[in-house]
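The passage that follows is intended for readers who have already worked through the single-chain material. We present the inputs for a multi-component assembly, then the predicted structure in tokenized form, and finally a short commentary. You are encouraged to pause after the input and sketch how you expect the pieces to fit together before reading on.
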Amino acid sequence: MTEPEQSRPTPMVSAQGVHKSFGALEVLKGITLDVAPGEVMCLVGPSGSGKSTFLRCINHLETVNAGRLYVDGVLVGYHERRGKLHEMHPRDAARQRRTIGMVFQRFNLFPHMTALENIAEAPVVVQGRRKAEAATQARDLLARVGLADKAQAYPAQLSGGQQQRVAIARALAMQPRLMLFDEPTSALDPELVGEVLDVMRQLADEGMTMIVVTHEMGFAREVGDQLVFMDAGVVVEAGPPRAVLADPQHERTRAFLSKVL
Amino acid sequence: MTDPSTPIKAVPLRRPGRWISAAVLVTLLFLFAWGAATNDAYDWPTYGKYLFDQRISAAALVTLELTVIAMVIAVVLGVLLAVMRLSDNPVLRGLSWLYLWFFRGTPVYVQLVFWGLITSIYQQVRIGIPWGPSFVTFDVREVGSAFMFAFIGLGLNEAAYMAEIVRAGIRSVDEGQTEAASALGMTWLQTMRRIVLPQAMRVIIPPTGNEVISMLKTTSLVVAIPLTTELYSRARAIATPIFRVIPLLLVAATWYLVMTSVLMVAQYYLERHFSRGSSRTMSSRQLAALAKAQEQPPGGGS
Ligand SMILES: Nc1ncnc2c1ncn2[C@@H]1O[C@H](COP(=O)(O)OP(=O)(O)O)[C@@H](O)[C@H]1O
Ligand SMILES: [Mg+2]
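Having made your guess, compare it with the prediction:
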């Protein structure tokens, strides 16, 4: 830690003592972590430990109660003027979210639209791009996730793995700088997990910054640059995945890993 | 041994119960129709004479216009009220509740009588600064007509019911949909218009179809205003001087039936349009494309 602070690049995500409560229930109790550009951070921890809530705070689907959360050097959810925080207008919050892609456990594809329409929707409606151009991009993205032949299929006609790959393509269509994955393979049949992880691995290889909540320790070990173990709203342990998985330092980490490995 | 890949040709199951009950019901229906055709009280010659009377068809058009305009008002206002009711602004929520409480809590007939009397309550409408100067003033008696008060009265009443239907529709859409739309950077309005309302339509349309049909019949109440150019009043007006009430009621009923039938067909197509993507079943076009992709003719069998 002899390096001066300013020589490091701005982190893509920087959480500094982030707290989040729902009424009396305190879910995040001071999360501090950094994700560098191009880094893949895997977030693991028992159910209810606040992983989803943390992801949702990053793209301001939830508002932080205390602490600061920066994405690409910009404060999330508030404007800071002369040392005071001002609530953000929903329109500005929507603008902030455009550069952050999110993939959900239950896919959340739009059921009334075909795969192609799902992907082309936000570029047209949100970014105001031309329909033909958005459709061309959508076709490219479908090819990239290996679903070139499913452009006209509705979500209900696709398998879970295929739906999740369309959902990834939909997020990528907004050309995000950061991708958040909330247990992207937990709702899938075991034989379908691989195809989704392959797409994510490919994305990581292309240099996308990613935060992945997952129980797939194999993926964390091979693709992750950083493994963060969270429990009861705090970061218990963080480090290179291989090191944490091979030699966990805390009893809680050991107990959790013995269950999922 | 037959080849197991031969298409199955099974003997259809016999269903005698179905045939017997069908025969009984068809016989009863025939007897009723026979009775009606031969009963002089129905006065079929008069029915035939007035069925295509120009006054009747013009009145049917008025009924249809009232229905359409009132429903358009009801749907637009209903969506607005439903969205207000679901917003997190307590003032908007309260106003929406108050509206529903009033318009659902009083009979539509009473409301229509009230609209008929509106010109004696409000003579002038003034647009301007309260207690200050006014920019535009217009005379309610000049601008308003019985027809206008009829569709306003019907539309405002119906909006309360439409609001509840739309609200149920919006709430039927999974929360994950709003979340995914927000995560893509859509604003609240974009999310409503592009994602939530189109999906809510599947839940909204069937009861709305019922409301349209019910509105078509409720238009006969505008005699309360009084507006007497619509179908029912016009049929009564023709029947009374010639003492032929029953055949003219049948004429009106026939027209109502034809109009509701047309509306039911429209509803069928609307429902089909908004059920896109709701099932795993593929259209024949999609299946053909898939079969082509697999490079083998559909069906098969040699
Ligand atoms: N909107 C909410 N309102 C109230 N409690 C919530 C809400 N969202 C999450 N929680 C609670 O926060 C805790 C953490 O949830 P979550 O972040 O989903 O955990 P994880 O993703 O690690 O399983 C849980 O106890 C959950 O019940
Ligand atoms: Mg979760």
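Commentary: The mean pLDDT of chain A is 93. Chain A touches chain B through 35 residues (CB under 8 Å). How closely did your sketch match?
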